[in-house]
Structures are given as C-alpha cells and as structure tokens.
Amino acid sequence: MIYRYVWQATMAAHFLVIAYIALGGFAAWWRPRLAWPHLALCAWALVQLTGLVECPLTALENWGRARAGERGLLPGGFIDTYIEGIVYPEEYVAVVRLAVIAVVLVSWAGLAVVIRRRRRRPSRTTGTSAAPAPEASR
Prior knowledge:
Elements: H1 2-30, H2 35-50, H3 56-67, H4 78-83, H5 93-120
C-alpha cells in the first residue's frame, strides 16, 4: 500500500515540476529569487530532451509502481505516459515543445522588465521619513 502512495505522490510531483518549468518564470515576477530554481529546472528539462539520463522522478515512480505490482511508465517516461496523446495529440509534440519554450522565454523577458523597473524605483526603506517636517511657527 505504501508503494502506491510513493508512485502517486511522485506522479503529482512530476506534474508540479513540469508546470513549474512551463510557468515558473511568471512566479519569478512576484519573487525574483524563484528565477534560480526555474533556471535550474529548465536546464534539467533540456538535458532530459537529449535522452542521455533518466529523470530521478521517473525512476522513483517506476520503483514504486514495480513494488506495488503495477506496470511501469512507457519507455518515453512520464510525458509519454500521462501527457502525449492525452493532453495533446502525439503529432504536435514539436509544436508543444516550441510553445513551452516560447512561454518560458516570454516569462524571462518579463522578469527582466520587472527587475529593471524595481531597480529604477527608489527603495522605500532608505531616504527620509515619509512624514513631512513640521513647519516653523511664526
């Protein structure tokens, strides 16, 4: 029973990671520090596209599935099992990948604009106090 929870939790984490890869750059508009984990996950996604290494989440899910007596993921891994042919038709793989890359690039361009605007704006914590100085009495 615990192995079922392992692979199901891993599957949910996998969906969250993929969503963060696609949309995490927009979260960095709110908190620029989120750009670093987003950049790391995007780099990892590019490595995964080469097919040279197996995703650790895929390995963990397959391990949990095997221990639970379930069939493993398709040879293409998580995306081939849960997304391609289900969320979008398989013949649109290249189009979807390009669309995700475009979304990521737009989010990073927007992040650059957000950071530039924040640097131009004077800080609220420095400078003089917000209350006006009292006028001298006559």
